Amino acid sequence: MKRIVMVLMIAACQMASAEDDLLNCKWENGELMSESACESQRYLQSDRERIRIEETVRQKEEEKTAKKRKECAGMSRKVLNNKERNAIAKAVKDALKDPDSAKFKWMKLSGKGANREGYVGYYCGLVNARNSYGGYTGYTPFAAMIGGFGTPKFEVIFVTLADNESDDVLENCAKECYTDFRLAN
Questions:
Q1: DSSP 102
Q2: Nearest-5° angle of CA 90, CA 77, CA 80?
Q3: What is the pLDDT of residue 128?
Q4: Range of 25's domain?
Q5: Within this chain, do residues 119 and 170 fall inside the same structural domain, yes or no?
Q6: Cα dihedral angle (123, 125, 129, 132), rounded to 10 degrees?
Q7: In this structure, are 35 and 111 located in the same domain?
Q8: What are the tens digits of pLDDT across the range 167-185?
Q9: 127 and 61 both lie in a single domain
Q10: Domain end: 73, 95, 124, which one?
Q11: Which pairing describes strands 155-161 and 140-149: parallel, antiparallel, or unpaired?
């Protein structure tokens, strides 16, 4: 019964300092709250504040993503030739447990490097390969640092595969305008 009354009454928890928080929790009618009621009010307030902050962060990220998509929308893209694909595939395979099982989905070279000879930057695509248990893991983004694009000295400098612990690959890909991996084929 006490819980129902607590839920029905609108409470305001007035906090003065960390030491006397419990002493300053009052119902709207001015009576002191029980310690548990006061604690419940603090949790509700902190949850509301957390949700508000998360919503603000999400909105800012959406704005940033929309701005990046707009920036990248007009860029030209180029299909990699076989030499470039083979060099990237070899470097990616070297990073896999079962290189012979690798299946790739390729994207067009980002507009930032598509028309610049000697370009150094990231190429991003998707790879699916078997893990140590013999099962395919699903298509995973990779970022290959490339140099000398459009020249006979084209090379893959290094490759990084995305994992669950790091967003570095996706961040580097986004910087190079690889934001929609659904375009990979």
A1: -
A2: 25
A3: 94
A4: 2-73
A5: yes
A6: 60
A7: no
A8: 788 888 888 888 788 888 8
A9: no
A10: 73
A11: antiparallel
Alpha carbon distance 36, 54 (integer Å): 27
The token pair that represents 58 in the structure block: 């999400």
10 and 47: one domain? yes
pLDDT digits (tens, 9 = 90+) for 42-98: 778 888 888 888 999 889 888 887 777 777 777 777 788 888 899 999 999 998 999
How many domains does one find in the chain? 2
Tokens of 175: 């910087």
pLDDT band at 29 (very low <50, low <70, confident <90, very high): low
DSSP result, 16-85:
--STTTGGGEEETTSPBPPHHHHHHHHHHHHHHHHHHHHHHHHHHHHHHHHHHHHHHHT---BPPPHHHH
Express as a percent the part of the chain with pLDDT over 70: 75
For the question of whether the overall pTM of this predicted structure is more than 0.85, the answer is no
Burial letters 118-155, b for 16+ CB under 10 A, else e: ebebbbbbbbebbeeeeeebebbbbbbbbeebbeeebe
